[in-house]
Design goal:
The chain is built from 13 helices and 13 strands. By secondary structure, it is an alpha/beta fold. The longest helix is centred in the C-terminal third of the chain and has 24 residues.
């Protein structure tokens, strides 16, 4: 027995997909309904929940956040030769959605406190080809949205929120994903709420709803047909199949039914990490996450920042030797082969690369126990001789 953890000694995984215990019950209901393709009872329940809790005009479940971003790029009417401004410190899907439309992605530096796009650098990157700003709410902490939306309004730009990590997060009382023109959620197995693979697009302005439904339904008005608005459905425009399986939606809805409980559990572990590791930060050994005033996060991740890449590698190895799996992520896109091919970095890279080489994510998931959290934090302290 591992006395520190209070359980049989085994590796503490970085992530365990959320599971409530009732998923199979809902999935069985979906199977028995004889409707396991998209837009059945559970898809509608998930969409309704997200619309009610966020206040967005329309929410459509998708097969992934990647596809939600691709839909957003299409709805923004991004074309070849256009430019889209975004941070380099993000997952590839943020850029891919616009690159697939033939756009050039223009990277700007991040803020070292939140790892989000530096809103003060956006305006200088705007050219006569700029059509949109794609921002990322890293770790569920909001970008400085007032400034970004003001810039977008003055320059007539669309705003796409990559809110993959930001469900149940807010900025000055506004749910993330609902402030820009389109918001995109992820329900991948690594997220707070999961359907294995899946996502959602949130649509702020009702004028885009019909176009979004047609796009999502392979270019047809099938959704309107099933609502009795048209007598037959026809091919109306280009589109693709962005509907998730009803079985996946049933899995997700089980978690949405207890969303507050899951959110509270993650925040409890996040706060526990912070309290336990704060002495290390006060001693100047590490940096801890920053949550700006007016931002509400969801405990999606807990990260620390080490002195440099070498120290991070040493800490990862030490934790692994003590049965703890910690990871880093996001090699900045502007330094990757595709980033060099499809984009450019505007201005100076003061923080993107430097901060990306320091960040280390500790295990964080719904089932993480207080005892495990205490053990992990204790081993981080031990590494620093504290």
């Amino acid at each position: 027995m591992n006395k520190n953890v209070g359980m049989e000694k085994k590796m503490i995984r970085f992530n365990v997909p959320p599971y409530t215990g009732r998923e199979m019950e809902n999935m069985q209901k979906a199977i028995e309904s004889m409707h396991i393709c998209g837009d059945g009872e559970f898809t509608k329940k998930c969409s309704a929940y997200l619309e009610e809790t966020t206040g967005t005009a329309r929410c459509l479940l998708t097969t992934s956040c990647t596809h939600a971003l691709e839909m957003a790029a299409l709805l923004c009417d991004i074309k070849e030769g256009d430019e889209v401004i975004l941070p380099s410190y993000t997952f590839v899907s943020t850029a891919d959605a616009f690159v697939l439309r033939g756009a050039k992605v223009v990277f700007v530096d991040i803020r070292p406190d939140t790892m989000n796009i530096d809103e003060t650098l956006i305006e200088d990157a705007i050219t006569d080809k700029t059509r949109a700003i794609a921002l990322v709410h890293y770790a569920g902490v909001a970008c400085e949205m007032d400034t970004i939306m003001d810039i977008a309004a003055r320059h007539h730009l669309m705003v796409v929120e990559d809110a993959a990590q930001a469900m149940m997060c807010s900025y000055k009382g506004k749910p993330l994903g609902t402030i820009g023109d389109f918001g995109c959620y992820s329900f991948h197995e690594t997220k707070n709420f999961s359907m294995g693979e899946g996502g959602a697009i949130l649509i702020r302005d009702a004028k885009y709803i019909d176009s979004a439904e047609i796009l999502r339904e392979k270019g047809t008005d099938r959704s309107q047909y099933f609502r009795g608005q048209v007598d037959k459905y026809r091919w109306q425009n280009f589109g693709s199949s962005y509907l998730p399986s009803e079985i996946n939606a049933a899995y997700l809805y089980t978690q949405l039914e207890v969303a507050e409980e899951i959110n509270d559990a993650r925040l409890a572990r996040w706060n526990q990490y912070y309290e336990l590791l704060e002495p290390l930060a006060e001693a100047g050994k590490i940096d801890l996450p920053v949550i700006p005033e007016g931002c509400v996060h969801n405990g999606h991740m807990f990260y620390i920042k080490t002195k440099d890449m070498e120290e991070r590698a040493g800490l990862i190895q030490f934790l692994k030797e003590n049965d703890i799996l910690a990871v880093f992520h996001y090699v900045p896109l502007h330094s990757a082969p595709a980033g060099l091919k499809f984009g450019r970095f505007h201005g100076q890279d003061r923080f993107t690369t430097k901060e990306s080489e320091r960040i280390l994510r500790l295990p964080m998931f719904y089932q993480l126990t207080p005892e495990q959290t205490d053990y992990i934090a204790g081993k981080v302290k031990e590494f620093y001789g504290y």
